[in-house]
Design a protein that fits this description.
Elements (H helix, E strand, L loop, with lengths): L1 H5 L6 H9 L8 H4 L4 E3 L5 E3 L3 E7 L2 E8 L24 H9 L9 E4 L6 H8 L3 E5 L4 H11 L3 H10 L19 H19 L5 H13 L21 H11 L8 H13 L4 H13 L1 E3 L14 E6 L9 H4 L1 H6 L4 H7 L6 H18 E11 L1 E2 L4 E2 L1 H11 L2 E9 L20 E8 L4
Parallel strand pairs: 4-12, 5-6, 5-8, 6-7, 8-9
Antiparallel strand pairs: 1-2, 3-4, 9-13, 10-11, 12-13
Helix pairs in contact: 4-5, 6-9, 6-12, 7-9, 7-11, 9-11, 16-17
The chain binds S-adenosylmethionine.
């Protein structure tokens, strides 16, 4: 009986279809209550409705599409622990929606997997609900950003560790000129922190408090307010080149101000932990112990056992819309990572043919690791100025790998400039809709 209770009973496609058709966004606060769920047609006109279901023909196949405002465009609605920036991350509402859509209430899936985990939005959201997680990303920064948040050390342990740190010791000149970003005293603190953290890591002495401080510092390296170590620059997920920063400084007539690195780390720590309940912290620490976090090509993840995953919620790179490695050079420097070699591992291509081959390989790998009856929610968008819907490329690739495509879920909303996440240009080369291809592994 106990075994039965713990078993993952996946939703059947007919149940998912019914849930999607009858979906209505429920207002979850006063601001939301003033907004009715709406759909926007091609002209931008709003039409109040529940889900619009239509069909699209791709080659020989017809796919069902479900269009609605499935989750809110409101900012900061997710858990505070999500609030670190990463290029082209999705909102926590996206995985939350699919986690609740694809499993019946009170039945926890054994394992949620994200092969392109980025900052770890899917996995953190899943772990906050007590689901087990596995993740992968070709960029080693992903684990640096996610693992400490799964370990969720206490505020007291971070305060204590920060007090122990001596960040004012004289330092040698850095190997690269960073004076356009940092005042001399700030750079000295950053260099001391970097040396200390990397030495602890290299000696195998790094603990959860160190990893947390590394994660927060990585996130605070550069940004557009006094909450960051740097002078004003672009949002923190897209460090500009040294030359470009010099130009920004000249245009804004600014010089880098001195910052208190420890105070900034502590402030961000308090903010990240502010919504964490005692129960969530317990869930997270449990999950952290078993979390498998890999740094592989998503098409080849031999550490993940056959049919070990119940649900995949993920989003791959969209052709060449984002230069992940280039944007992360400062974060790589701080963490002692080689940005050039990471760049070679990350798939960025303007060729649709190459992208198709890449995603086809990933689909075959996902088919291997997903359990019969399990689900894949694969998020893509429209690219090339809205002329290419990548969901129409992905759906046939999922089917060629063996999955059945149950439909394409389109979350349609009027984004404000920053409603999705920094790094997605509104109405330009980025994406205005989330388009999720839903794939089901038919049980034998
Ligand atoms: C759209 S982002 C995922 C963002 C994530 N959903 C989040 O919320 O942070 C795509 C990710 O794919 C990673 N990536 C690119 N090529 C890859 C590959 N060949 N194998 C694994 N990961 C790859 C990038 O480093 C990036 O983090």
């Amino acid at each position: 009986m106990l075994k039965m209770m713990n078993q993952f009973l996946p939703m059947e496609p007919a149940q998912v279809d019914a849930a999607l058709r009858s979906f209505r966004l429920i207002a979850d606060d006063a601001t939301e209550r003033q907004r009715q769920p709406t759909l926007f047609d091609d002209t931008g006109a709003a039409a109040p409705t529940t889900t619009l279901v239509d069909e699209i023909v791709v080659g020989e196949r017809t796919y069902k599409r479900y269009v609605n405002e499935f989750w809110t465009a409101r900012q900061r609605g997710g858990h505070s622990l999500h609030e670190i920036s990463y290029r082209a991350c999705f909102k926590a509402e996206l995985p939350r929606f699919f986690l609740s859509l694809l499993h019946p209430p009170h039945e926890k899936p054994v394992m949620v997997y994200d092969p392109f985990m980025g900052r770890g939005t899917t996995l953190l959201e899943a772990a906050l609900s007590g689901f087990r997680v596995a993740g992968n990303d070709a960029n080693p920064l992903s684990e640096i950003l996610l693992r400490p948040r799964l370990e969720a050390p206490s505020l007291d342990s971070i305060v204590e560790r920060l007090e122990e740190l001596r960040l004012d010791a004289p330092v040698a000149e850095p190997e690269i000129d960073l004076s356009m970003f940092y005042a001399p005293g700030t750079l000295r603190q950053i260099m001391n922190l970097r040396t200390w953290l990397n030495r602890r890591r290299d000696l195998g002495e790094e603990d959860a408090a160190d990893r947390w401080i590394r994660m927060v510092a990585t996130n605070r390296l550069s940004g557009h307010s006094s909450g960051f170590f740097s002078v004003y620059t672009l949002p923190p997920n897209q460090a500009v080149s040294a030359q470009r920063q010099r130009e920004i400084n000249a245009r804004r007539q600014q010089t880098p101000p001195e910052r208190d690195v420890k105070a900034i780390i502590l402030k961000k720590t308090r903010s990240l932990l502010r919504k964490l309940t005692a129960q969530q912290a317990r869930y997270l620490r449990n999950v952290a112990q078993s979390a498998l976090l890999m740094c592989e090509d998503a098409g080849r993840t031999p550490m993940l056992a056959d049919e070990s995953v119940d649900m995949v919620i993920t989003s791959p790179p969209f052709l060449n819309t984002v230069q992940y490695a280039q944007d992360n050079w400062l974060r790589c420097w701080f963490n002692g990572l080689d940005a050039e070699s990471i760049a070679r591992r990350i798939t960025v291509t303007s060729s649709l043919q190459q992208w198709r081959a890449f995603i086809g390989g990933v689909m075959h790998e996902l088919y291997r690791v997903v359990r019969p009856g399990g689900w894949v929610a694969f998020e893509v968008g429209e690219v090339r100025g809205g002329t290419l819907n990548l969901d129409e490329v992905v759906a046939p690739l999922g089917e060629a790998a063996g999955f059945r495509c149950i439909g394409i879920v389109i979350n349609s909303q009027h984004f404000t400039k920053t409603a999705n996440c920094w790094g997605v240009d509104n109405n330009a080369k980025g994406t205005n809709t989330n388009r999720i291809v839903l794939l089901w592994k038919v049980p034998a």
